[in-house]
Design a protein that fits this description.
Length: about 230
């Protein structure tokens, strides 16, 4: 997601300060997008320079003045245009997959412990999502955004379903690993292999050249170069 468009999306609900935008990010979309104040304020200045938001200073006698940002008509047009365009896939970085990829370097017990820990994390995350559903309904009712809450709910649904699929995968992976003999695994994380690296690179280059355009690996390679 573009932070620029995320801010426009929230400002489309109403005028807000940078601090208020940060609070909304943390309590509504943090399960799939994070934004720090150090990112929000420069982006708001950029939006203001582009004419997509306006900023007015509201004087306060007993506390610091408030810089309130309001979306402009051009900002609303930019938001609608962005929302209607197909979303590009993001590059995925998943630490667990790196651990699994090099799983042959550790013992069966060590790699299955890592997988079981992930299952526990995902179960707890889904429990938080379930609690978040009730918060969404209460919040939407309180501010009169029941129509918008339908779409907020969809973002939680995809998180739950993704976690459920990941749990099934981890459980199946543990079952498959448990069937392996202990000798299948390395005795130390410093286990040294015997791969001919130059030969391996030659094979990978040849395989990459044979892949059809648009294949998964070709796309990943293209994103890495960007």
């Amino acid at each position: 997601m573009s932070l620029k468009h995320g801010l426009l999306g929230f400002l489309n609900y109403g005028p807000m300060t940078g601090y208020e935008l940060k609070k909304l990010f943390d309590t509504s979309v943090a399960h799939f997008w994070n934004a720090e104040l150090s990112q929000i304020y420069p982006t708001l200045k950029q939006l203001e320079s582009e004419g997509l938001v306006e900023m007015k200073v509201k004087l306060q006698a007993d506390r610091p003045n408030r810089k309130v940002y309001t979306i402009t008509d051009d900002g609303r047009s930019e938001l609608v245009d962005w929302l209607s365009r197909p979303a590009d896939p993001d590059q995925v970085r998943e630490p667990l997959m790196i651990k699994v990829f090099f799983g042959a370097c550790v013992s069966k017990e060590q790699i299955t412990r890592v997988l079981r820990h992930r299952i526990e994390q995902l179960l707890e995350m889904n429990a938080r999502y379930e609690r978040g559903c009730s918060v969404i309904q209460s919040f939407a009712a309180g501010v009169g955004l029941n129509r918008e809450a339908f779409f907020w709910q969809l973002t939680i649904d995809v998180g739950v379903k993704h976690n459920e699929a990941s749990i099934r995968w981890a459980e199946e992976a543990i079952e498959r690993i448990d069937r392996l003999d202990a000798s299948f695994f390395g005795t130390s994380p410093l286990h040294v292999g015997t791969m001919d690296v130059r030969r391996a690179v030659e094979i990978l280059d040849r395989l990459k050249s044979e892949m059809p355009e648009g294949s998964f690996s070709a796309q990943a390679a293209g994103r890495t170069k960007e």
